[in-house]
Amino acid sequence: MYRVLIAVICIAAAGGLGYAAFAERWLENKAPSRQVAFSLLSSKRCVGESASTTCESKSNSELMTELTMHEKQDASMAFATAGQATLGMSLLSALMLLLCAGYLVVNKRTSGPNGPQHLALIALMIAVIAATVFVKTKPGGPSGVGAGPGFYVFAVACVLGIFAAQLASKLIKPIDPDSSL
Length: 181
Hints:
Blueprint: H1 2-22, E1 27-30, E2 34-38, E3 42-47, E4 54-59, H2 60-69, H3 77-105, H4 116-136, E5 146-147, H5 149-172
Antiparallel strand pairs: 1-2, 1-5, 2-3, 3-4
């Protein structure tokens, strides 16, 4: 029963990371006349009232290049790069957590000292660092945009993923031959 519970937590964390990786609203501002939303790879800006709203989408790299050319002080390519890194590490950790769940369900152990649980933990740690840089270097400064649903799901999924990978490690790592001594 314990193995199944940890497998379910691994799957839930992987699902949350998958959702967060492709969420269109990681950061957002829902002002009535000017809505802005950022995903990990792109941005969408809508201007106008409900009847005559016009929207423009750009990749975060294009947006940062444009802002840098206009010499905006808060424009940093680190924003786009951190979004890409967060996306990649989120997907890698989700894949490794699903692999952990598979090992748990079939009651199998890894053959070497480094298994999917370790890769999941490393990827999650890098994803958290990259996400922090992504949020910190967002255009518009502190008053521009705030956290959206993608960010919150990512945060919960990271905590669950770290918890699940550590619990899974006890059950899927190779048996230590010296542990019987």
